[in-house]
Amino acid sequence: MNKVQVIIIAFSIIIVIAAIIIFSLMSSGEPPRIGDGTSQLVVWGVDRKEIFQSLFETYEREFKVKIEYEVKNPRTFRQDIIEALASEKNPDLVIASADWIVANRERLAPLPSSTATPEDIENIFARIVADTFIETVTAQQKPQRVVWALPLWIDPLVLYWNKDIFAEVRRAVPPPDWTEFIKASNDIRKLGQSDVVVRAGSALGRASNIPLYKEIFSLLLLQENADLEASLQKTSYQQEMESVIRFYSDFGNASKARSGVYTWNTRIAEPRALFTEGKLGMMLDYHSYKSFLAEKNTHISFGVALAPQIENAKTPVHFADVHAIAVLRRSQGQKTAWHFAQWLTSQAQAAIYLPRVGAAPARRDLIQASVLSPLLQESALNARRTKENYPEYNSDFLRDIIESVADGRLTPSESLAETRARYRGLLEQQ
């Protein structure tokens, strides 16, 4: 390493450290004086209250601002916010998933640049945060980068595998790539008369009874360096999209029961239920599900591994959800709200709620901590996702594509052509 390289590396480290110090100082100072101790912030979220309750109490005690947290149904959260804004009874902040925040960013207030810049956020948090919550917009005829939310945690998609079933088929370790995944799935599956699935090798191939079908499909597509929404709307990534559709739907195509990877159909239970019954060898699910599975199903011997990758890929790619906190544009206490958001995402507070969630940190300093498992370190640092302006449309269209191809009604190319025509019609109506 030459002298110039050493100087560049040292300078980069100084910038990162400075950003973390600045962010920490900003999140630990006194909030704006907006009352006599009776001030409050209203927060709506989709996560359990017990994850944050002790932190809410600490903030109220230290900063004299009461935090009211209301748990909302994820399915009706968007409509709840719309109705609350219309009646001027909206919360100050929301805690939600990445898809929700990106799709509803027109209702959010961007992080003030005087508080923290996009560059600060890039230095403090993992790459997926910038990919998801930083956007270039046009303000006063000039491009400007804005930050829509601050991340709380990264929840990667990981591979759950039944150790007893693997031992039965004489496999000692989970598959590291998709080639080995197919082999393991075929070894594990058991088909009865008329190709009835007695034991499923893996949970892929369908959408109607695989709740995380979109997440699994997105993982496969990201590993091909392709974008889901762009692929559904236009002919972008045509080859990659057709390949992933074919790969995924083959697992649910009964016509390939004897010659292919068929292992799933619409008549069996959802993956989590089937896994706990010992009738499923592998499933892809969020890491946060691990503690629940261990507590409720002590009879199941299972392991958790990194999601499979493309064989011989130079760089691993993992899919993850990012839960974050954002301030609503209609909030009457935006300065205090952003102070609370920064405080909640600081190193000290994150270290408290992360064990309760079972997910990976969003902060680089906590990702690098020695106490974090290698699995969470790798999946957090290499987590990716693409922005979706219409996540609900994408889910519905992708479901139709998967089911039509798995049933043999359409080819991948035909299903894409049909979907793009329908998508154009919807967008033209807006």
How many domain regions?
Answer: 2
Rounded mean pLDDT is 91
CATH architecture designation of the largest domain: 3-Layer(aba) Sandwich
CATH superfamily of the largest domain: Periplasmic binding protein-like II
**Radius of gyration from the alpha-carbon trace, in angstroms:** 23 Å
Report the sheet-strand fraction: 15-25%
CATH class of the largest domain: Alpha Beta
Query: What is the fold-level CATH name, i.e. the topology of the largest domain?
Result: D-Maltodextrin-Binding Protein, domain 2
Describe it for me?
InterPro entries: SBP. It holds the Pfam family SBP_bac_1. This is ABC transporter substrate-binding protein. This protein is of the alpha/beta class. It has two domains: 215 residues, 3-Layer(aba) Sandwich (D-Maltodextrin-Binding Protein, domain 2); 205 residues, Periplasmic binding protein-like II (D-Maltodextrin-Binding Protein, domain 2, 3-Layer(aba) Sandwich), CATH 3.40.190. Strands 1, 2, 3, 4, 7, 8, 9, 10, 11, 12, 13 and 14 form a twelve-stranded mixed beta sheet that branches. The chain has a two-stranded antiparallel sheet with strand order 5-6. α2 links the parallel β1 and β2. α1 crosses α5, α1 crosses α14 and α18 runs antiparallel to α19. The longest helix has 26 residues. It is globular, with a radius of gyration of 23 Å. The termini are far apart. The N terminus is likely disordered.
